[in-house]
Amino acid sequence: MPSALKMASKTSATTTTTSTGQPLSDIPLSTGRTDATAPSGTPSTTSPSEASTISSTSSPSGASSSLPTHNYRPRVAILGAGISGLSASLSLRRAGWSVTIFERSLFANETGAAITLPPNASLCLSRWGFDFEKAEPVPNWSIRFARADTLEVVKTEEYKGFGEDMGWRSWGVHRADLHKGLRELVIRDGVKGAISNGERETEGEVDGGHGTKGMVDGGPVDIRLGREVVGVDCEAGVIEFKDGSKSGRWDLVVIADGAHSKLLPYILSPSMSPKDAKPQDLSPQEKEPQVQPNPQTLARPTGRSIYRFLLPLLPPSPLLANPHLRPHFLPYSQGGPLPGFLSWHDPIRDVLWVSYPCRGGRVLNNAIVHDTQPGEAGESPGWSTAVGREQVLRVVEGFHEGVKGLVEMAYAGGAGDGDGDDEEEGDGVEKAVVVDEGCRGEERGTLTGEKGIKVHHLFKRPALNSFVRGRAVVIGDAAHVMMPTHAAGGAIAIESAATMEVLFRGFPPSETSSQLEEFVKGRLKLFDQLRIPRCNLTMLASNAGPKWLNVEGVEEEVRRYYKGPLPHKDALPWTREFREVLFCYDAFEAAKEAVRKEEAAAAGFSSESKGSEVKVSEVEAENM
Asked: CA-CA distance, 202 to 175, in Å (whole number)?
């Protein structure tokens, strides 16, 4: 195992449901355990679909006056169990919150291709104790730009030491392994560096050398499967399920239901809440609230699509047997190029083929971005659909014959890793992931046994001015769907989750509702201030393409939200200027600084108020 990998690995609820007509004031609060009772002694109610629960919280999960103050845990509902939802649940657990995830799927399929973890994301994962060694990522140390017709490499950018002095690294990882590693972290007993019972902070260097002062373990996350949320009352913290039942009142609600989010309208439409969506507003087919369309909520087709597939890299892979391809894919340890991106571009048809290794270098991830072809348009329930060999070959007609051979390999049985229903760089929330350990495809001899290539249509949405409303916040693809141009969508979602860990610890040490509500809304305001610039910068850059600052109007749009430095307009993706802007970011430190400034401002205001009170008292005394 590379030394860099060793170093990285080393550093590495309460739910309430009722019938639709039951008054919210009558809803009993339960701890999420089967033996829980409401404060009044009434047994808690759990719908049959909630029986699909991965883990129930082992720490006190509700705000109950019968609990000691030091056991008090605010409650958060996270809607979606993709990469952003799991990351947020882990960060809020580490901040001391009692976390419940509601996921509409049943975790039935192993899905996806690979995902890039730039340094801004790997930093967060290492501090969370993510098991990099188990996930088998491959270092991302270079990007090679090559001609599609001749395979000639015309430019190489190497960044082997990029960020390593601060513990940041760049990796290519199979998204199923990333999802599985996050899931293990959220449900396991204990959090690395956490403290228990009444203590509110821990001193010393923990979590791979990073202090966790102020962190309290909220307990293993409660994951409720098969629970589709169709409505959110952002002000009251109440969520509504497809079956008409409700759950609340949550102290915080995190919407993480992906690029085709059905819940984003509740963030953008203050007048729409579950209580407004009664039977007269429901469609007879789906029984879902009919939220008025808002242009900002719609993920619109871009006219571009992406083919995805995986290929084996180890002998006897035809990749290494082909004399034209072998120099590009020979392992670094055997004299090959530095691992990282290989980008073939056909400028005539504007087709971009990007590949990089994952799973310890045994698997090659392939993505071909192209203009959407006739018959490809439209949206399947899982985003991605199978596509025929001849159609793919027509798209790559201008490519070298050796590269076309990779398409033939895909249809001969070397491609696929599940049904690929999620985005390469985003949340992957359409279907969650379960990996059967010891049963990976490549270990069975055919990678996964699935043939063919999937096509995924690329979408984008206008930038949002705010991600919050009331006590609710939207993160990940639901907030900022991105093209995979800069391998940044998943990373920026992980950043947002890390920001939440810092902002939402240090909550009021009692269950006084007014204090907690004020705390939550204040920290959500800080979240907006921190994340709107970063997320919108990254989204606008990704959606405008490799030469994004040369696209008319993009820089002006970016400057509406982001005032920091930008790379030169001709800087290519992953070159130094580009990396320093998008990937040299420590979400933890940025959030800590924002909290320090907020607390200092509050302390200054308090001192001024006390000074004014003293002066008023002196004047009153003189006039007596």
From this structure: 33
Closest CA to 545 of 571, 565, 566: 571
Q: Is residue 544 part of a domain?
A: no
* Residue 413 within a domain: yes
Residue 452: φ, ψ to 5°: 95, -175
Q: Give the ranges where 318-410 is alpha helix by DSSP (H).
A: 318-321, 326-329, 389-395, 401-409
Q: Are 378 and 487 within one domain?
A: no
Peptide bond into 316 cis (omega under 30): yes
The count of structural domains within the chain is: 3
Q: In this structure, are residues 409 and 389 in contact, taking their beta carbons and an 8 Å threshold?
A: no
Same domain flag for 197 and 66: yes
Evaluate whether residue 161 is within a structural domain: no
403 and 474 together in one domain: no
Name, in order, each residue with C-beta under 8 angstroms of 477's C-beta and a sequence gap of 6 or more: 82, 84, 258, 259, 261, 423, 426, 427, 429, 489, 493
Please give the structure tokens belonging to residue 602.
């509050």
574 plus 558 within the same structural domain = yes
What tokens does 466 get? 């705010």
User: Do the beta carbons of residue 274 and residue 237 sit within 8 Å?
Assistant: no
pLDDT at 217 (0 to 100): 82
**Domain co-membership, 250 together with 312:** no
> Same domain for 492 and 442?
no
Distance, CA of 3 to CA of 294 (rounded, Å): 50
Residues in the chain with pLDDT values less than 70: 1-71, 108-112, 165-167, 192-216, 270-297, 377-383, 413-450, 511, 605-624
The 10 Å CB-count burial string (b at 16+, else e) for 211-228 is ebebbbbbbbbbbbbbbb
Cis peptide before 576 (omega within 30 of 0): no
- Tell whether the torsion through CA atoms of 574, 579, 581 and 582 is positive or negative: positive
DSSP state of 288: -
Together in a domain, 446 and 347: yes
Q: What domain range is 256 assigned to?
A: 3-133+173-282+466-531
